[in-house]
Amino acid sequence: MPITSTLIAKTQQKLLQPQTVPLQAVIGFDGFVDEICDVVDKRASGDSYSRIETIKEYGDRISRAGGLSTNLELVPKVVKLGGNGPIMVNALNAQGVSITYIGALGDPTLHPVFTELASRVQAYSIAEPAHTDALEFKDGKIMMGKLESLKNITWERLIARVPVATLRELCRHTQLIASLNWTMLPYLTELWQHFIQEVLATITFAVPPFIFFDIADPEKRTATEISTALQTIQEFNKYGRAILGLNRKEATVIAQVLGLQIERPEQAALKQITCTIAQALSIYGVVVHPSDKAACFVAGEYYEIEGPYTTQPKLTTGAGDNFNAGFCYGGLRGCSPEESLVIGCGVSGFYVRHGHSPSQAELTEFLDTWAKHIGEEF
């Protein structure tokens, strides 16, 4: 449905209200060093080049090398912290949320890209970070990952660094638990199962926390593994308000794994695929966010808004994590699901234009600008 200035203004007013209760989150478990790269098309000099602009052009260049060979040059533009968890933490922390982060930040010492993050949150590192070359194009990105260190993210490694008693105490006082990047963490389902049995099942919550999941692109995992992960997420729903966040491609894969009766799920309407997945899983919420809009099915109701899409993003790697942070922040602030979609799109919209997550003041200003330019590129 069309976004309205009234809805944006209503959301702004919610965010401007004083927050009387400290907001806390426990998040895990990945960690990456990201190199954001251009792929060179033509190089004019040592300091000047034109880049390959689209994924199709990049694919065509590779295809022409079949039976031959080719040389592709990557130009790193930014080296930064990465991973679904750290990027989401940055975005939530910028809105004033107090966070405990557990993940792959360096072992035995923190990697330098995480030093600043660790100065702002309570950080526990349980493994070396992975590495990604993020090839950015106008129409998307290709993530080239080196993930060997992530096999060390296990339940045994976790409790060796963060004892069960500490995990229970952390979770007892939090309003949000988030576990991200399931696809790249080969032992995360097993970790989840232990976490349910040894942590969540031992706590009586006054208010059930939000428990947010972003499984990341699961295409390389088997249908059996994906199905087991989804069943485990359903188990989490017994102890909190479980929410599964998906981009449009991920929603297609999940629909296929669940065997949903959707003809051509990759082309299905956003409402159809969101509602059908949510009803099949029977958890508190499912969120699906294509690049130009966002939708959710929460507590039996469907909501959809158009986002502030731009054709000239400064940075797209991490946009989904910023959306997830904004959506979760809306829930923490007592916003409606529809208002939470607005916040998610606002945080993500600011991020792709500026290359960093917004502060509270920057988010408010961005929402104001968006309200004045609905339906326009800005």
From the structure above, extract its key features.
UDP-N-acetylmuramoyl-L-alanine:D-glutamate ligase, 378 residues, alpha/beta, five-stranded mixed beta sheet
Description of the structure:
The protein is an alpha/beta fold and 378 residues long. It has a single domain (5-37, 79-372), classed as Ribokinase (UDP-N-acetylmuramoyl-L-alanine:D-glutamate ligase). 38% of the residues lie in helices and 23% in strands. It is built from 13 helices and 14 strands. The chain has helices spanning 5-16, 55-63, 84-93, 115-120, 155-161, 164-172, 188-198, 223-236, 248-257, 270-281, 319-332, 337-354, 360-372, and strands spanning 24-28, 32-43, 49-51, 74-82, 98-103, 122-125, 130-137, 140-146, 176-180, 210-214, 241-246, 285-288, 293-298, 301-306. The strands form 2 sheets. A 9-stranded mixed β-sheet has the order 6-5-1-9-10-11-12-13-14, with helices on both faces. Strands 2, 3, 4, 7 and 8 form a 5-stranded mixed β-sheet that branches. Strand 12 and strand 13 form a beta hairpin. The protein is globular and about 65 Å long.
Could you give the order of the helices and strands? HEEEHEHEHEEEHHEHEHEHHEEEHHH
Q: Strand pairing plus helix content: what structural class?
A: alpha/beta
Helix content: 25-40%
What is the tally of helical segments?
Answer: 13
CATH architecture classification name? 3-Layer(aba) Sandwich
The tally of structural domains comes to 1
Low-confidence stretches: none
The whole-angstrom Rg is: 20 Å
